[in-house]
Amino acid sequence: MAEKELKFKILAKDRKSAARLGEIKTVHGTLLTPEFIPVGTKGTVKSLDFEQLKKINLNCFFVNTYHLHLQPGEDRVFDLGGLHRFIGWNKLLMTDSGGFQVFSQARNSSFGGRRALAGAETETLAKIDEDGVTFKSFKDGSVHRFTPEKSIEIQKKLGADIILAFDECTYYPATYEYAKKAMERTHRWAGRCLEAFKKRSRFNQGLYGIVQGSVFEDLRKKSARFVGSLPFAGLAIGGVSVGESKTEMAKVLEWVIPDLPEEKSRHLLGVGEIDDIFELVARGIDTFDCVMPTRLARMGLLLVKPQSPKKNRPKGKEFTLDITKPIYGKDESPIESDCRCETCLHHSRAYLNHLFKEKELLAYTLATYHNLWFMARLTQEIRESLGRGSFLKLRKHWLGR
Ligand SMILES: [Zn+2]
From the CA of 373, how far away is ligand 1's center (Å)? Predict the structure, then answer.
């Protein structure tokens, strides 16, 4: 059964919120939670090597099944000893089902990025049927097909420690009827994923179920109760951060979390902006992945602590410093004077500004190193505050509320 390969334990609970301190044990080590999981789409966290990741103390990253399926293909990875051995990483790995990319690719190419109501059109263009989804490769246009069984088979060959059930990610906005239909299909697929997961495997893995239901309270609650009742090792909340507001996302968590079994770990898919982190931890999320810190780094946007929470900086920019701005060209100070990361210990803002101007490869490495160090220290601070019972105080310190 799924639970045996992955053990989750709650170590402490916050008294004033639903936040919890915990640990996820796998054959590739233990993950203390709450924890941020960086995205390493193609088996690499862009611009960093694994020694750097270990030095930052990030012990898990998220790999995309869809991309590895297209290149180099799961059979080759399997023949080369599985993902850990293939890439040379002996700590935790997580893979998604591939569904998110398949659905979003179909949608983006069809609507040219325009936001449309998820409904019949999306279904036709993505060619979703009861059995699975047919889609074209973004690389060469070749036709592929994912079913719940196929997604699990691919993920079993890749061999990540935490793998995800194949679901239909409902985009925002979606009609109630469509969200309901997609949720019910996700539920039927959940059963098929569990069946496929029972087959013999070379690797020790834990399968997470996914809760859907868009922004509709009754659907979200129904999905949480249903998926939560199945023998999954952990649970993930999907269909968030797909265009809805932060208030709507908070509501989804408010509806879903109380209906999930407490003893199972909870992952939030695709969320990780600084203010979101305090919100999701306070509501009882254990792990979350997001491309934000690494993507921002490559744009020259470096994460910094708020200098003064009262000082109103533009929304969404409270925690970033744009190193490409001319004012940093002569600035000899590090990104953050109290940051102990290798970038801040050895390099100035002026040097980073120069590297970004010249588009030197080292710019991406140094910026990504700092941003991930920042995330790892933030989640470490959160865990320490949970151990001490001072989580809400920490949140106030960071967000000023
Ligand atoms: Zn730093």
Answer: 7
Chain centroid to Cα 294, Å, comes to: 12
* Ligand 1 center from residue 59 Cα (angstroms): 19
pTM: predicted TM-score of the whole model, two decimal places:
0.94
Instruction: Label residue 114 by pLDDT band (50, 70, 90).
Output: very low
Q: Is-catalytic flag, 289? A: yes
- Compute, in angstroms, the gap from residue 35 CA to the centroid of ligand 1: 19
Q: Measured in angstroms, how far is the CA atom of residue 155 from the centroid of ligand 1?
A: 35
The one-letter amino acid at 329: G
Residues in the chain: 401
Say whether 129 is catalytic.
no
Residue 95: beta bridge partners? 63, 163
Ligand 1 centroid from CA 303, angstroms: 9
d(CA 290, CA 36): 8
* pLDDT tens digits, 91-105: 999 999 998 888 776
- Of these residues, 14, 161, 167, 289, which one is catalytic? 289
In the CATH hierarchy, which fold is given to the domain comprising 2-290? TIM Barrel (3.20.20)
Q: What is the C-alpha separation between 368 and 362, in angstroms, rounded?
A: 10
* Per-residue pLDDT tens digits for 334-380: 999 999 999 999 999 999 999 999 999 999 999 999 999 999 999 99
Please tell me the distance from the alpha carbon of residue 400 to that of residue 50, in angstroms, as a whole number: 35
Cα of 294 to ligand 1 centre, how many Å? Answer: 14
Q: How far apart are CA 375 and CA 56, in angstroms?
A: 9
Q: HSE (CB half, 13 Å, CA atoms) of 313?
A: 14
Per residue in 22-81, pLDDT tens? 999 999 999 999 999 999 999 999 999 999 999 999 999 999 999 999 999 999 999 999
Does residue 264 contact residue 8 with C-beta atoms inside 8 Å?
yes
Among candidate residues 14, 96, 167, 276, the one labeled active-site is: 96
Q: Is 6 helix (H, G, I), strand (E, B) or coil?
A: coil
Q: What pairing do the DSSP bridges indicate for beta strands 92-95 and 60-63?
A: parallel
Domain boundaries, the chain: 2-290, 297-396
H or E stretch covering 392: helix 391-399
Residue 148 near residue 166 (C-beta atoms within 8 A): yes
Structure tokens at 40: 């390493």
CA distance 37 to 54: 13
Q: Which two tokens stand for residue 373?
A: 């160090």
- Rounded CA-CA distance 267/237 in Å is 6
Question: Is the pLDDT score of 126 beyond 70?
Answer: no
